[in-house]
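Notebook B, p. 112. Complex prediction, attempt 2.
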Amino acid sequence: MNTQPPTQPLPTQPAATTDLIDTIEQSLSSRDLAAASAALSPISTRQMVQVLDRLSPHQCAIVYRLLSKQRAVEVFEDLSPELQGELVRGLQDAEVAALFEEMDPDDRVWLLDELPASVAPRLLRGLSPHERELTASVLGYPRDSIGRRMSPEYVTTHPELTAAETLRRLRARIDDAETIYTLPVTDSARRVVGVVSLRDLLAADDDTLVDAMMQDAHTALADADAETAARDCTDRGLLAVPVVDSEGRLVGILTIDDAVRILKREENEDAARQGGVEPLGRPYLSTPIRRIVRSRVVWLLVLAVGATLTVQVLSVFEATLEQLTVLALFVPLLIGTGGNTGNQAATTVTRALALGEIRPRDLLRVLSRELRVGVSLGVLLGLLGFAITALVYDWQIGLVIGCTLVAVCTVAATIGGIMPLVARMIRVDPAVFSNPFITTFVDATGLVIYFVIAKAILGI
Amino acid sequence: MNTQPPTQPLPTQPAATTDLIDTIEQSLSSRDLAAASAALSPISTRQMVQVLDRLSPHQCAIVYRLLSKQRAVEVFEDLSPELQGELVRGLQDAEVAALFEEMDPDDRVWLLDELPASVAPRLLRGLSPHERELTASVLGYPRDSIGRRMSPEYVTTHPELTAAETLRRLRARIDDAETIYTLPVTDSARRVVGVVSLRDLLAADDDTLVDAMMQDAHTALADADAETAARDCTDRGLLAVPVVDSEGRLVGILTIDDAVRILKREENEDAARQGGVEPLGRPYLSTPIRRIVRSRVVWLLVLAVGATLTVQVLSVFEATLEQLTVLALFVPLLIGTGGNTGNQAATTVTRALALGEIRPRDLLRVLSRELRVGVSLGVLLGLLGFAITALVYDWQIGLVIGCTLVAVCTVAATIGGIMPLVARMIRVDPAVFSNPFITTFVDATGLVIYFVIAKAILGI
């Protein structure tokens, strides 16, 4: 009879971690390292990572040095590459070398990508020859390729082996592999001819040949874009995807948890850029204010400079405005609606691009769809705008507002829809070219449309 | 010697699928079903899913009926719940019942959630008793809970069993389980006392007790929020998480691929709402224009009604505008910059909320951070704005623009930063309350600030 108490569900432990951080911050600010050390000793590795995540970089370095050597290695492995990078810059060479040797080759490359290029060769020289070779094989691939994110540690089997032989082979080399749940099947030239799942191996009779139970391999080219390969892996719900070179030879394996990690990073970048900020790369509450300002100021300046276009457009129509000040009242409403329509289109198309639903060659189809959507939205809003303005002001102003809404919505939806595709074509991140950018552009265009229509209808 | 040719890497096959869709669309529009059928017969299940994804709902239903019975079941299982729902509405009861019996219990619940509530009891009655019971156990949990997304099919082991016994047990029941790579360890009361990985089972000696090799279970409460539990699973890189009731008893299992699916859906919704559109729920190119318009028009109307606030604010200051039309020139620039600053703050905070980095109780910390960020950005932009406007116009106008930028950036960053937290507090999706909403709100506030400052400095 087992009398162990049940493990309690501990989904996030928010309160405990927050209190802990308060205690540690207090100990640090009163320079009481013994108290901080005491507060840290009972907590789990996972919680330790959460604590470091929420401390400032400076506090992080102090706390990290309070950990025992064994503990430090465990915690370090679980940190995000950015935080690892920050810590490494504060540690001594010998300490870094020890940590570096302990890491998996793919995690090592994530870290190297965070560090200044000059540091990499020094760190690599410190590795044992076997680890150095594994790491170098991953480092050989371009920065955004899946080759750079794969694990070079895998166990394979061959078509002519039996299930039992494969299981024995697997058990003998179980510590060397990133995953054992999907095994690539290779021929004598190391080319991938299929995959076999551990589930099928266990379900099969001992003497069933791998040849008889392997399935077609869904592979990824090592030079292929990391995000595309990762999305492909998770879309298909594959636990692991063999990574091959241009000859179809196995060079590594991408596991679903690494695929998730790659996508999460991309999502973060996209979400940030869509709102006109650079990704912070570390948790919000522990990011210095200075760094948050830096992540936003460049975009804000670029957009403000773009917005001076609206000042120029309005200057051109200044005489019209002096004649009829009432026109000024509708400027924010009209350009705001244009901006919203443009953003809606851009959001939908950017997302569809990211999910691979559309490609740049679909430009004309997107154009025709957004044109129709824009006209529909414009007519709906325009009729409403006409009715209300005609009631409150007069029917001529109503007509100007109604017609402007139709035109602005159509132009905005079309521009917003094709802009992400154009960005992709000229190889810029579509999320960069997105909402705030479109707003600014649509603002200026909308003003021109507004005053041209006003002058035509009102005859001024 | 195996002479099979190497499997070619087939990451997405864009060209092939696109051509295929063209062929099928042509066959359908010329009502040549035989040609469509011929085009479909050689393609893989996966490609078939891609084809259906890109056809209109009407075309989808026709093509689906051309498939053989066996084929249809395979394809149906791989479709998204939305597309399944669309198809089901077009099929006969007997056809639906046959499909429904073949599905996994968790997939069945995804589908039921897409169908009108009245359909569910009829479909459930058609199931075999065992399948009905499994499905009902999942359906018993609330809509957004992880209980509703878990699989009720799992294999467990017990602390007093050996590695060899567990492996035998596993092999005997291998077809019943959603995953075999992480086994929950339960006591006699079905409470989860740990987990053991298949890797550890295979690496261990035959007579090692499970008790000796099991690890602490990271579990999820069945009633817990599905997104939080899924994020927790992927953040930790766990292949599977046992789902337990409030007593700690095992009720199901959440696998990483299902966790990824839950998060993908949430990301899509968030990305859509952030841009002021309702999620389409199906691929962009195959969504009818009508439905795209519907996904945008409500938000656009709400925002336009909100924007009438700006018209009212400007009406109040109409006399000032008539006196000094030059003030109107800067309106789009000023409110645009305010909107951008607010969006940046909202994007950062919404993301941090979604990732669990901050919680509503951090409101004051966020407020103080965004206040400081806003002032910093405002001073930078304000100095620049003052310099340029003073040069081009005169120093008094320059002073108005400079001071307004400082005030608007501060207010916008603060509002943008706390709005997502307020949304969360009143239990609204923070992404809804987001960028377009903040833009509209900041527009009106910005105008008031602008004219108040202008009147004070210019003495009008």
